[in-house]
């Protein structure tokens, strides 16, 4: 042949392997490498078959690092089948005894999301090194299986191994995803004991753990103690302020962040847009949108969803819909933002139409979607549509939460069907109230009983001792020339 390529080499190696010319197959593989050709999955399967037939471990050792590269690259579902073939053949040839290939195999399964096969491969290792422990623990932690990751970590300690700066931060991520607060605090203590907290990436993980677990004060202490702060640090504490509900504190921090942080990434702009949405602050939102366009971040699906949410919450629904329609790729978050935006501003029918459009395009809804659509129906009294959607949620296998039931009660009550609201028997849990001594909840219940003609029940609510009921003044912000003065109760600006 005048021109050889990887396909012709692979066919030749495969043919020699099949007819039993295994040494010739291995020699051809070496010639292929020396000729500058990069083997593919088919080539590796063929040459490993030859090694397995010959029981030639030594030639396999020569190519083990190449197989390790293949296993590391096979991280998608499409490549998983070929990677499993390579794994099986490496077991047969004895190549799996090499620690690099062992770790690469586990990493391949972890990256493919096949944790069960990853654990089987991990269990097959007779002498486990720290690298294999780190890969399997990180795999379970980052997939949200915090308890399993902690269990493996305890086994690591029992084996007498010292965890490194890669194992412990991944455990913290798993603890934050599974909300294992006590376990995460223990990991934090161990990081301090081993001296790993000095690394900025480790400090950022600690900060993010406390923020996501709702421990705002602790996250603030970690941030203040950091000697070096990068964009990840600022993003984490900024998101913590927003999650904590301290929007004024977040707006002050934003000004400090813009002065001290030289580089802002897509996560930063997504958080800024979330702040603009929650305040709401349309002027800041428009300015942020301009920055996003200049940096070409608007194509990012996270930033795009945040833009839609910001415009929807600020009441600029036409802008939200316009940007939603031109997004290069949408996701469930952007659909939910549009549904919530329509519902928040009293466009219940438009929210229902958006839901049906989402279903027609094959987007799978979740419980958050139904909270938004049911509250939208309640806001404009769409009783029939609300009932249909509530039944549809059960058909989809989504277990109704108390928010869904509250929306149904609100739907019946607003439509004047107070008896149906009062007799709503499908709630599998006890009704709750976040603030049992908040007088606003009692005032709403009193009005409901009056409209239903239940005067005795109304008297019981109104008869609650004043000491048990506390009236919490309303708080809100308005945007005045880019500033946000707080309005509380009957106070002025």
Automatic annotation (TrEMBL):
This is Pentatricopeptide repeat-containing protein. PPR repeats lie at residues 5-39, 129-163, 230-260, 331-365, 366-400. The keyword Glycoprotein does not apply. Transmembrane segments: none annotated. Coiled coil: none annotated. Keywords: Repeat. PANTHER family: PENTATRICOPEPTIDE REPEAT-CONTAINING PROTEIN (PTHR47926). One of its GO terms (biological process) is plant organ development.
């Amino acid at each position: 042949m005048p021109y050889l390529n990887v396909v012709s080499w692979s066919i030749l190696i495969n043919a020699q392997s099949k007819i039993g010319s295994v040494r010739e197959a291995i020699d051809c593989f070496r010639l292929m490498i020396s000729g500058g050709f990069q083997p593919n999955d088919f080539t590796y399967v063929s040459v490993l078959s030859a090694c397995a037939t010959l029981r030639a471990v030594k030639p396999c050792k020569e190519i083990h690092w190449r197989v390790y590269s293949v296993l590391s690259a096979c991280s998608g579902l499409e490549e998983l089948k070929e990677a499993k073939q390579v794994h099986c053949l490496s077991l047969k040839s004895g190549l799996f005894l090499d620690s690099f290939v062992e770790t690469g195999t586990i990493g391949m399964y972890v990256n493919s999301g096949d944790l069960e096969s990853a654990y089987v491969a991990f269990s097959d290792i007779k002498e486990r090194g720290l690298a294999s422990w780190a890969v399997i623990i990180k795999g379970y932690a980052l997939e949200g299986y915090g308890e399993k990751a902690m269990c493996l970590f305890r086994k690591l300690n029992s084996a007498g191994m010292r965890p490194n700066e890669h194992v412990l931060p991944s455990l913290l991520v798993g603890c934050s995803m599974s909300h294992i607060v006590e376990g995460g605090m223990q990991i934090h203590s161990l990081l301090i004991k081993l001296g790993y907290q000095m690394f900025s990436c480790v400090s950022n993980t600690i900060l993010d753990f406390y923020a996501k677990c709702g421990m705002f004060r602790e996250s603030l202490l970690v941030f203040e103690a950091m000697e070096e702060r990068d964009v990840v640090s600022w993003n984490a504490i900024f998101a913590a302020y927003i999650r904590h509900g301290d929007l004024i504190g977040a707006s002050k921090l934003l000004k400090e962040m813009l002065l001290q942080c030289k580089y802002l990434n897509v996560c930063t702009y997504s958080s800024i847009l979330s702040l603009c949405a929650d305040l709401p602050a349309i002027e800041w939102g428009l300015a942020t949108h301009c920055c996003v366009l200049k940096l070409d971040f608007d194509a990012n699906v996270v930033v795009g969803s945040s833009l839609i949410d910001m415009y929807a919450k600020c009441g600029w629904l036409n802008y939200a819909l316009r940007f939603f329609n031109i997004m290069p790729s949408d996701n469930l978050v952007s659909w939910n933002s549009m549904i919530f935006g329509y519902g928040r501003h009293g466009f219940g029918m438009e929210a229902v139409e958006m839901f049906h459009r989402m279903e027609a395009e094959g987007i799978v809804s979740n419980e958050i979607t139904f909270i938004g659509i049911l509250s939208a129906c309640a806001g404009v009294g769409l009783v029939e549509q609300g009932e249909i959607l509530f039944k549809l949620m059960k058909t989809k296998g989504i277990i109704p939460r108390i928010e869904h039931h509250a929306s149904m009660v609100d739907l019946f009550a607003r439509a004047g069907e107070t008896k149906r609201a009062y007799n709503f028997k499908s709630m599998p849990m006890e009704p709750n109230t976040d603030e049992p001594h908040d007088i606003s909840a009692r005032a709403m219940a009193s009005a409901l009983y009056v409209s239903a003609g239940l005067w005795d029940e109304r008297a019981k609510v109104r008869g609650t001792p004043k000491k048990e009921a506390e009236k919490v003044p309303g708080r809100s912000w308005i945007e005045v020339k880019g500033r946000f003065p707080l309005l509380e109760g009957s106070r002025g600006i």
